[in-house]
């Protein structure tokens, strides 16, 4: 581990570099890696990659780890993993990946740290000037204190002309101002989706708690039947 940043009060983002200093395999947006303890390689957890998916000289991986009390890896990452620590890590994998070459609008629906696999979909065009279809992320959080990657998403919103980030706060603090710090009050629901995007046959990708996935999917498919994919 080269370094680690505290993203929120309960999410940490380690930066991993190969011990031999060599290049890393590229990955498609939505893929994850699986770290393991050297003395217990059978005990693993998968974490979505948060950095740019495509690079000529990909030398590091970033992943976001939310602290889970009683968890296997997250307490170690948050309290005991320091720069220079080594872990076994798989190459990026996963059956689900967001297509990058198509013309349909894309709607990303995420809660909390669930936004992480979507960052890799947005960062390459922001850094290289490439194009993406119209993309509308709906990101649900309680408030600014628990809002991961808020500044990063804001910069992407400014850099990508066809990106519109919509932030939802379910428990805003007194200092959180709607229209300034967030866009909509409450949790992410199907009712927040622009009907025009549905008419244009947008692709929908959802990442979050199962209750959110079930509720949003039911709301979207009840009468409108768009293409909905769940990112697990």
From TrEMBL:
What's the domain of life for this entry? Bacteria
Task: Give the GO molecular function terms.
Answer: 2 iron, 2 sulfur cluster binding; flavin adenine dinucleotide binding; metal ion binding; oxidoreductase activity
Which residues belong to any copy of the FAD-binding FR-type domain? 1-99
Cite the residue spans of the region called Disordered: 1-43, 126-146
Q: Which cofactor does it need?
A: FAD
Keywords noted in UniProt? 2Fe-2S, FAD, Flavoprotein, Iron, Iron-sulfur, Metal-binding, Oxidoreductase
PANTHER family annotated for this entry?
1,2-PHENYLACETYL-COA EPOXIDASE, SUBUNIT E (PTHR47354:SF8), NADH OXIDOREDUCTASE HCR (PTHR47354)
- What is the name of this protein? FAD-binding FR-type domain-containing protein
């Amino acid at each position: 581990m080269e370094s680690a940043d505290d993203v929120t009060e309960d999410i940490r983002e380690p930066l991993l570099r190969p011990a031999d200093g060599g290049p890393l395999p590229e990955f498609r947006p939505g893929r994850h890696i699986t770290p393991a303890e050297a003395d217990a390689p059978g005990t693993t957890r998968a974490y979505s990659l948060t950095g740019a998916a495509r690079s000529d000289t990909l030398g590091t991986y970033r992943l976001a780890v939310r602290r889970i009390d009683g968890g296997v890896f997250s307490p170690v990452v948050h309290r005991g993993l320091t720069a220079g620590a080594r872990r076994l890590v798989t190459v990026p994998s996963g059956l689900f990946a967001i297509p990058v070459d198509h013309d349909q609008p894309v709607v990303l629906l995420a809660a909390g740290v669930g936004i992480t696999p979507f960052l890799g979909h947005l960062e390459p065009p922001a850094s290289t000037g490439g194009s993406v279809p119209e993309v509308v992320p709906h990101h649900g959080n309680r408030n600014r204190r628990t809002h991961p990657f808020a500044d990063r998403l804001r910069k992407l919103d400014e850099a990508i002309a066809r990106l519109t980030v919509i932030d939802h706060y379910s428990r805003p603090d007194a200092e959180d101002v709607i229209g300034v710090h967030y866009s909509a009050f409450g949790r992410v629901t199907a009712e927040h989706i622009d009907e025009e995007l549905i008419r244009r046959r947008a692709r929908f990708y959802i990442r979050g708690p199962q209750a959110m996935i079930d509720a949003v999917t039911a709301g979207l498919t009840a009468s409108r039947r768009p293409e909905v994919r769940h990112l697990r």
